[in-house]
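W.,

You were right to be curious about this one. When I first looked at the sequence I had no strong expectations either way, so I just let the prediction run and decided to look at it fresh. Below is the sequence, 225 residues in total, followed by the output.
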Amino acid sequence: MSSLDFRARVHAALGDPARLAIVDILTLGDASPGEVGEALRMPTNLVAHHLKVLQDSGLVARSRSEGDRRRSYLRLVPETLTVISAPPAPEAVRVVFVCTHNSARSQLAAALWAGHSRVPAASAGTEPAERVHPRALRVARRHGLRLAPTRTTHVDDLVREDDLVIAVCDNAHEHLPTGARPRLHWSVPDPARADTDDAFESAFADIATRVERLASILLPGEDHD
């Protein structure tokens, strides 16, 4: 069974309110089938049906009592719950955030990433501006980050084959050359269009949420250089 099929089976098992209630009970401690039925006021045959589904999905395990061997206890398998919370963890030697001008979104993403992951990060643009946008500098300072005002880079001068390229700009996603094709795309609206502090704060918040989510599951890859 593929990991995707396994995750689908676990989701399906949790899709019934009664089975979800059983999982809630077992989250706090082990219980016998009879105790589960009593807690939920559920007939024995229905308890048995739901427990079979939960056991088949790998969410619940059953063991014999060390006291009365005729009695069995159910326990939650927490490792099974973890597989449904996120897709399989990707790996990367380096993360490169790319937008058009490398003057705001990609710069902010790389700066945020440094505070969340030990995987190195960099940023680049398909048409780099001469300077980082002044409002990007200000929003970074407000959140305790520092950007180099004149440090912008062309994507051709930076991206390597083993980089995890993340386009934080629709234009970059659609027009990056084949050699720097993004593996991920974050459709973050361009704050420079509105050119207001609120627009840059909104872009910062959007990027920060995405960075935190990816950094929590991304594993350091092996550098083959």
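Here's what jumped out at me. The beta strands are 60-64, 72-76, 91-92, 95-99, 121-125, 164-167, 184-185, 219-220. And, maybe more interesting for your project: The mean pLDDT is 90.

Coffee later to discuss?

I.
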